[in-house]
Write a structure and sequence with these properties.
Helix content is 0%, strand content 51%. The protein has 117 residues and is mainly beta. 29% of the residues are buried.
Length: 117
């Protein structure tokens, strides 16, 4: 069992920034892909951004230009830098790991992000 532990959530005003971290209790290269998901109250969980083992990144349209996914190989940590935050970014954010391209194998416990207007 691989543990993914998120941190960095909190309350921020609209236009502000937060950086989420996800500590991965394994060699980060053991994952085919690492992702950030979010789930807002009453809505389905959605993928926000992902990064492949080759460093290729993808973003949902609503965060392009504002959020940046990155990783530290040395620290086995996944990051999500969130800038220009909007109230609609309010959600629980989860990191997730896919070992082989067949779907998410591991989820973190989530960290809450609240953006006030």
């Amino acid at each position: 069992q691989v543990q993914l532990v998120e941190s960095g959530g909190g309350l921020v005003q609209a236009g502000g920034s937060l950086r989420l971290s996800c500590a991965v209790a394994s060699n980060i290269f053991s994952f085919y892909q690492l992702s950030w998901y979010r789930q807002a109250p009453g809505k389905q969980r959605e993928v926000v951004a992902d990064i492949g083992s080759d460093g290729t990144t993808n973003y949902v349209d609503s965060v392009k230009g504002r959020f940046t996914i990155s990783r530290s190989i040395a620290k086995n940590t996944l990051y999500l830098q969130m800038n220009s935050l909007k109230p609609e970014d309010t959600a629980d954010y989860y990191c997730a790991g896919d070992l082989d391209g067949l779907g998410i194998d591991y989820w973190g416990q989530g960290t809450q992000v609240t953006v006030s207007s």
